[in-house]
Amino acid sequence: MSRTSRLTANRLTLAYEDRTIVDQLDLEIPDGRVTVIIGPNACGKSTLLRALGRLLRPQGGAVLLDGTELARIPSRQIARAIGLLPQTPVPPEGITVADLVSRGRHPHQKWWQQWTEADEKAIGEAMERTGTAELADRPVDELSGGQRQRAWIAMALAQDTEILLLDEPTTYLDIAHQVEVLDLVRQLNRERGRTVVAVLHDLNQAARYADHLIAMKAGRIVAQGPPADIVTADLVHEVFGLASVVVPDPVTGDPLVVPSRPWQPPSEPGTATPRATERDAAPAGQA
Ligand SMILES: Nc1ncnc2c1ncn2[C@@H]1O[C@H](COP(=O)(O)OP(=O)(O)OP(=O)(O)O)[C@@H](O)[C@H]1O
Ligand SMILES: [Mg+2]
């Protein structure tokens, strides 16, 4: 990869007790790009992301930030460089949205100066951008799933790190809020040069928003590169075991994955009538 990479993994092995999930993985996260990780449930996406954010200690190999092992870097220093939104974060009991978001500023605060204008500005902006300002005084555990997700995103934004790791940031969000969050991520990337790594399940959103796409299966990287280069029906079949066709997205031209036909009841024995969708799909005049 020609681009530089602040965040890399070197023969990274990740395991829970004696169950190895990721085995000797090498990885370079391109700086100033949006990287999206896709892959089936339980293939190790969250495990990898947690290791990149030092929430999980490698069993072998290392994650390096600017060439230094994460394990050798003080936590505050890491927290000023890397923000991580886990897949299922747990809020402290009774915490309000405003307090949750302001926790994102902790790594920046000094004991002799706990609250600065920069903190104020980062928090206000994060809440504004995520539409959580009007929820400021609400307890997080009383919010809807989507409101809560946006509060967590606001906290990650308030942390204002150069590298942002987001594990399924669009979960629980309706389609408009999904697009809003992904557009926000892209805006942070394009305008401020932030490096983003996001896990997404929606392949079409992944293809739209990723500069660099990583397809994982069973803890390994099956393919990586620009979506236009790697997203094919063969890849979708290899990674997800799903039959599909890949066509150009009518709006952006990016690859659009369309799964093959939905299940249909088998036609009655002895009847030659074509199934509804096949009939509908037949060229005009042949029905
Ligand atoms: N804390 C844990 N202790 C033990 N095993 C775990 C733990 N967390 C995850 N695993 C296991 O590790 C494997 C990878 O899990 P991981 O959460 O990384 O998958 P994922 O790719 O993020 O899946 P999903 O798409 O469902 O979020 C799974 O088999 C899971 O059961
Ligand atoms: Mg996960």
Descriptive key words:
287 residues, alpha/beta, Rossmann fold, globular, binds adenosine-5'-triphosphate, binds magnesium ion
Structural class computed from helices and strand pairing:
alpha/beta
The end-to-end span amounts to: 52 Å
Number of helices: 10
Any idea what the radius of gyration is? 22 Å
Beta content comes to 15-25%
Mind describing the biggest β-sheet? 6 strands, mixed
- What's the architecture, going by CATH? 3-Layer(aba) Sandwich
Succession of helices and strands: EEEHEEHEHHHEHEHEEHHEEH
The chain-level mean pLDDT equals: 91
* Ligand inventory: adenosine-5'-triphosphate, magnesium ion
Structure commentary:
- It is a single chain.
- The chain is α/β, with parallel strands linked by helices and 287 residues long.
- The protein has a single domain, classed as 3-Layer(aba) Sandwich (Rossmann fold).
- Helices cover 32% and strands 24% of the residues.
- The strands form three sheets. A six-stranded mixed β-sheet has the order 6-7-8-3-9-10, with helices on both faces.
- A hairpin with a 2-residue loop joins strand 9 and strand 10.
- Helix 3 runs parallel beside helix 5.
- It is globular and about 80 Å long.
- It starts with 6 loop residues before the first strand and ends in a 6-residue tail after the last helix.
- The C terminus is likely disordered.
